């Protein structure tokens, strides 16, 4: 049964005092990300229903990936419904259509794999992106794809189960393929597909941690994301 | 990857004062070398710290050396291929920047892995083998540009699968795993670019991603490179059945690993 892939035990273990304290500092640092109990002093409990908690351990990492895939899938759904796509070249229509399918497949895969441990649907906000404008759409796509690669590369070391590590590895290289294609659409024939802004002098690509990734994503996500229990 | 950052998060997980001293002296050495010879220091010292930790036992170190020497063999192949290609004049002038960039990355990978194996894990980096990129006279990559592009795609897609297949074998070391992942995604970027370039030039219809394990117009000898890429089932979930998305698109959305033996079988075609 597909829902048995991932046991939700990670949700109730590995919640220690250290992670709780870390959450306390992060809610200050990432005000846009974690809006817990800000506007009502009478609340005895934070309004947890509005936000999602990624959980801990491997479940937490998979929910982290699921959150990013939700964001990407929602983005490309908006792209193919927008004015840029309607008038795009045949090549760009194929690419955007493929990316919409790939990200939707990733999203639905994580939801099924996580089963009852999956976070709720995130509410996205793409009001800053003009979906009728090619430059704006490609710039946003570049941001999402590069961010996804850096996120998976940065999270790999925290995964404990080699089977999950392999699944993440299967997906991250496709995100990198996407990122290279988008970058080439923006600056055709250049070496931006693997640009020096991302690849260091050892030939290693940028990695990003949970805080950096979710802070970058928070521009486009309304739902508060509690990632305080992720491994560190 | 910011190795200095990673270094700062590491602590000597030991009660031995000797090991703690080694850890801190290596960390300090890294900071001092940082300005003088950034490249070598970046490669050597943080992973040197790692070898000082009791967490990495000798047997594990031997295993890491084995995996990294395997990776180094592939990087030697890729670097020599692109270096020879760039020197040969076979590459269209308009594309030279692309292949120079790829060549530079492969050289950086060779140097990085050599440094880590030799001066950090204290192993012996494999010497560069003698390559025969004609595969016994079957290909002419350095006089025929379409062939050069075809083999380039084959090598990049193989590299992606090879690194992916080793992730679990280096997961005992966070730093080595992160470095391997950070090479893996660079190879995937190369692969995407070369695949699309071939299609732009009318030599194939492949996309940046791999569809149904298809070799496209590549020579039949490359079939082993794409075998298994048609998979649509992951972690017990049949994604095609789950989503209703066509199998071609689902197969594109996940890249598959290859074992060391499978990859060396492919690479052996190009060993002299």
Structure description:
The complex is a heterodimer of chains A (232) and B (272). Chain A is mainly α and 232 residues long. Chain A has one domain: Ferritin, CATH 1.20.1260. Helices cover 52% and strands 2% of the residues of chain A. Chain A has 7 helices and 2 strands. Chain A has helices spanning 17-29, 57-80, 83-86, 90-114, 134-155, 162-186, 210-217; strands at 52-53, 225-226. Chain A has a two-stranded parallel ribbon. In chain A, helix 2 packs antiparallel against helix 5 (134-155), helix 4 (90-114) runs antiparallel to helix 6 (162-186) and helix 5 packs antiparallel against helix 6. The two termini of chain A are 31 Å apart. The model of chain A is unreliable at 1-43 (pLDDT under 50). Chain B is mostly helical and 272 residues long. Chain B folds into 3 domains: 1-55, no CATH class; 57-209 and 260-272, Ferritin, core subunit, four-helix bundle (Ferritin, Up-down Bundle), CATH 1.20.1260; 221-254, no CATH class. Chain B contains 11 helices and 2 strands; from the N terminus they run ααααααααββααα. Chain B has helices at 3-9, 17-36, 38-52, 58-88, 96-120, 145-166, 174-200, 223-226, 239-243, 247-253, 260-267, and strands spanning 233-234, 237-238. In chain B, strands 1-2 form a two-stranded antiparallel sheet. In chain B, a hairpin with a 2-residue loop joins strand 1 and strand 2 (237-238). In chain B, helix 1 (3-9) runs parallel beside helix 3 and helix 6 packs antiparallel against helix 7 (174-200). Chain B is globular. Chain B starts with a helix and ends in a 5-residue tail after the last helix. Mean pLDDT of chain B is 85; it is low at 1-15 and 23-56. At the A-B interface, helix 4, helix 5 and helix 6 of A face helix 3, helix 5, helix 7, strand 2 and helix 9 of B. Chain B: Pfam families: Ferritin_2. Chain B: This is Ferritin-like domain-containing protein. Chain B: It comes from Algoriphagus pacificus.
